Amino acid sequence: MVVGSGVAGVTTVLAVRHALPTARILLATKSVLDDGSTRWAQGGIAAALGPGDTPEQHLQDTLTAGAGICDERAVRALVTEGPGAVQRLIELGASFDREPSGPLSLTREGGHLRRRIAHAGGDATGAEISRALLAALAEAGQSAELEVIEHALAIDLLRTAEGRAAGLTLHVLGEGQRDGVGAVHARAVVLATGGFGQVYSATTNPPVSTGDGLALALQAGADATDLEFVQFHPTVLWLGPGSRGRQPLISEAVRGEGAVLIDAAGRRFMTGQHPLADLAPRDVVAKAIMRELLTSGTDHVYLDGRQLGAAEWARRFPTILASCRAHGIDPVTEPIPVVPAAHYVSGGIRTDLYGRTSVPGLYACGEVACTGVHGANRLASNSLLEGLVFAERIAVALGRGLPPAGEPAADTRPAGLLDPAVLGPLQQLMTTDAGVLRSGPGLARAAAGLAELGLQDCDKPDADAWQATNLHLIATALVGSALVREETRGSHWREDFAGTSDAWRGHLIVSAGDSGLASVFEPVLDASS
Ligand SMILES: Cc1cc2nc3c(=O)[nH]c(=O)nc-3n(C[C@H](O)[C@H](O)[C@H](O)COP(=O)(O)OP(=O)(O)OC[C@H]3O[C@@H](n4cnc5c(N)ncnc54)[C@H](O)[C@@H]3O)c2cc1C
Q1: If residue 3 lies in a helix (H) or strand (E), which one and from where to where?
Q2: Which of 89, 383, 388 to mutate to test the pocket of ligand 1 (most atoms within 8 A of CB)?
Q3: Which of ligand 1's atoms lies nearest the C-alpha of 386?
Q4: Taking Cα atoms as reference points, which of 471, 126, 194, 223 lies closest to residue 344?
Q5: What is d(CA 388, CA 470) in angstroms, rounded to the nearest whole number?
Q6: What per-residue confidence (pLDDT) applies to 257?
């Protein structure tokens, strides 16, 4: 069975149907089919598709972004199989933007030395990919071989006495009588549940990104890795205190057109921080905003784009203008309240090159997985590609032989669930002490705060309690890894360890046991060693 209906989950279903036409597949997803990060992806999907570009160059750019800890074999699989995977997506019906003469219109993004980003509908790439995949799924139709269930929350993994995956428990989130919990037996379980942006108070991720698959896998004994590497976007629209959910991105291009960051008193605070001031790299801007918030004690700063004028706003940034106005802010006449926000999780459930986790029969794919392609920092537009390529690889592995059927002997539920009321304070402490800026004392404070929140049990096992419990486990694992890694690398920035250290060139592998979470450091071994 497959859990999650984003690019990773739906591609897995379609590819497994192709590899194993008579296998019975169940796709379960906790909301409606197109809810998830996939439909919000904007920039595009990276692949060496243009004239003069090669997988080797894409590999080099990916390794550079990953800051020394990518798994080169995984990156090689991504970049060599990527062009074919995008081509298959086009054959499936995805319509990418094209040049007037016919070839794909390819753009460049930060970190790519070539134009290799395919996009659709300008900045609506994820929506088009999701549409095409879900249309193909609908065309496959529901049958004895394929069943799709929406509003079904996967809560724990069933295992055989030998520890193999044997299925899942699903909590069907219906009204009244349709609400219920049931076990689904399966020979293979593929988790494609996306990221965990909701662990922070500001995120570009939708509300479904609560890291359920990662928490479930940890509870079931699977290894996770690289959890400390979370990418932040410097500016999203601040929606007010305690707001939960997806915060609209305010693209860097707005600053490119002359908008500047100011504090509540109207003072420009990027001047003097970097030679490029407001146009400094993403991490520099995100850090400067966070410092400003911490020193001033406020919860947002402002992006002043009034000088662009009404016509320029409407011409250049119609989507941003519309989403600001939908939230009662008019960027033409007033500065936009902004904060940095969690955007993408490079780490996740540790897998091999075929999506296999350390629990036999359990697979992971997409943002929930850590295949090793992103290392310490994802290269822009590599994540949709990772979902496509590694979904197809899981189908290859399953096509070679399904794991044996097994009788479930035990579930892998946490001992108790937390009160959903912990979520607000949890997100706030993660943002303040384990977000963009990290330091030993701040992370220790976050760990202590999380331990305290972990005492707030609840006895109503509803979806909110499951998600809060999952986010608490992930936050605890993330803070633990961030505290241990005493260096700055990729998207992990330690104020007290500003440099990158060779001693830390490796991965923190996290697992959950009877005595709680534990981590071990595994150095990267070069091919020559
Ligand atoms: C605003 C934004 C812009 C982005 N832009 C780009 C870009 O330009 N290029 C790029 O490559 N990447 C981009 N990304 C990242 C990319 O969109 C994601 O990494 C990718 O879509 C993840 O796909 P996925 O299938 O792994 O997860 P998702 O698309 O998030 O899907 C997860 C699925 O799992 C389901 N689910 C979760 N938990 C459970 C559970 N317990 N039980 C049942 N179902 C569950 C969800 O409902 C959902 O269907 C962007 C992300 C965001 C948020």
Answers
A1: strand 2-3
A2: 383
A3: 11
A4: 194
A5: 26
A6: 83
pLDDT for 184:
95
Q: Give the DSSP H or E segment for 510.
A: strand 506-513
Contact 130, 35 (CB under 8 A): no
- At 359, the amino acid letter reads V
130 lines ligand 1 (CB under 6 A): no
- Does the CB atom of residue 41 touch ligand 1 within 6 A? yes
Q: What is the mean pLDDT of each run of 10 residues along the chain (529 residues)?
A: 98 97 96 96 92 96 94 98 98 95 89 89 89 96 89 96 95 75 95 97 94 98 98 91 78 86 95 87 87 90 96 86 94 96 96 98 98 94 97 98 90 87 95 95 98 93 94 98 97 95 98 93 77
Q: How far apart are CA 481 and CA 467, in angstroms?
A: 21
31 ligand 1 Cβ < 6 A: yes
* Beta strands 2-3 and 189-191, pairing class: parallel
Tell me, what's the pLDDT at 529? 45
Q: Is 384 in the pocket of ligand 1 (CB under 6 A)?
A: yes
Burial class (CB in 10 A: 0-12, 13-18, 19+), 272: exposed
**For position 527, what pLDDT does the model report?**
58
d(CA 142, CA 125): 27
Strands 457-458 and 369-370: unpaired
Q: Is the CB of 107 under 6 A from ligand 1?
A: no
- Let me know the angle formed at the C-alpha of 526 by 486 and 192, rounded to the nearest 5 degrees: 70
The tens digit of pLDDT for each residue in 256-288 reads 888 999 999 999 999 988 888 888 878 888 989
What is the C-alpha separation between 339 and 199, in angstroms, rounded? 15
Which residues are CB-neighbours of 451 under 8 A, at least 6 positions away?
476
Residue with tokens 């008019």: 330
* Alpha carbon nearest to ligand 1 atom 9, residue: 381
CB 226 within 8 A of CB 521: no
CB of 13 within 8 A of CB of 149?
no
Question: With contact defined as beta carbons under 8 Å apart, do 262 and 523 qualify?
Answer: no
Distance CA(276)–CA(268), nearest Å, equals 13
Q: What residue owns the CA closest to ligand 1's atom 38?
A: 193
Which residue minimizes the CA distance to atom 52 of ligand 1? 41
**Beta strand spans in 211-300 (E):** 224-225, 230-237, 260-262
